[in-house]
Amino acid sequence: MGRVREFDEEKVLDAAMQLFWEKGYEATSLSDLTSRMGIQRPSIYSAFGDKKELFETALRKYTSSRASETRTRLQTHQSVREAFRAFFENVVDEEYSDSPSRGCFCINTMVELAPHDEKFEILTREHQMYLAVIFQETIERGIQSGELASDTNAKALSQALIVSLIGLTVMLKSRPDRSFVNNSIEVTLTLLR
Amino acid sequence: MGRVREFDEEKVLDAAMQLFWEKGYEATSLSDLTSRMGIQRPSIYSAFGDKKELFETALRKYTSSRASETRTRLQTHQSVREAFRAFFENVVDEEYSDSPSRGCFCINTMVELAPHDEKFEILTREHQMYLAVIFQETIERGIQSGELASDTNAKALSQALIVSLIGLTVMLKSRPDRSFVNNSIEVTLTLLR
DNA sequence: GTTTTAACATACCGATCGGTACACAAAAAA
DNA sequence: TTTTTTGTGTACCGATCGGTATGTTAAAAC
Predict the structure, then answer these.
(1) Which domains does chain B show, CATH number per domain?
(2) In 10 A of CB B68, how many CB atoms?
(3) Average pLDDT in the B139-154 region?
């Protein structure tokens, strides 16, 4: 053993995640990273590899925490309809209070990197698929409880809701009127019958 | 008057549009632009200003042609339901045949630039609002003809469809199964009742 | 034909990019 | 205490970035 690390690997990774989330891959420079992470370049490279590897590690950290947060949020409501309403409205509130609006790190990456890098095409697709499964389980719970019609196609419905969630998240980046956003959520939630 | 331009301004602007559409703002370099547009740097600067101005001009060209194309597509079907189905399915087909999938230039810009540049926040928002109006007019046509229920909230519904369209376009960048995409479209179109 | 005007191509600018060589500092191993 | 190992900070690498100065060429104006 030699000298011990002076920085907390989780903390500096989190700082990198915040930065990539906010600015994307290309627009984030190594200088941005060193100042935000509070460590020097060689420390980044020895701990996380090059810029792309660091980005991937940060994104994986994001998706895994985002997935478990999503599961938790949807479980904290008895009513499935209320659960989805609260979930969507929370997305809106966060986006309006964030300035600049960061949106979803995974969605940002789908747009910026997925079309040109198969690794991120797969990573982002699998995250969305995973979220769809969480949605589906929630819908199935609603069917079980009798809140939703028994002939509901849980899988197809969950996929449509994921698509709407993505669209909502992206749309919010242009800061549309609240009424636009509220209308779309209201209409979309009528799918839960 | 001095020497006349040797290049077609519309053609080279179109080339720039294709490139920005495919790679985004940051990832497109001036060298990429000169080689794709077939003209030298000073010609770009004299004809279109700096990189950001050229990008904005290219995006405006895109949104205006995209809007009129959308209106045309929705008008070519008697049935409003069929019009929207064909419209959504066309988006899917184009995305799957494009490699890499370019998605929508305006949506790409919403994600990359809108959060950090008010000019593009406004420009992209207004394009989406304009598309929403086109959707709304189409829905109102369906109400008039009796195809859609008379108590349909055309505005709210059009906004929800825009959100789904954005979500679909973004989701396609991760190349999900056709079944995922078909399911979401099928469910979303049940909103047209 | 001469002058004037503007587009052309080349070659270059300083700044910044991602990435690393190297010397020094610190802590474990001997 | 000495040796070995590994992290840290500095200073630098070549490449590329967006943008421009400059000299040349071509066409309109006279």
Answers:
(1) 9-189 (1.10.357.10)
(2) 11
(3) 98
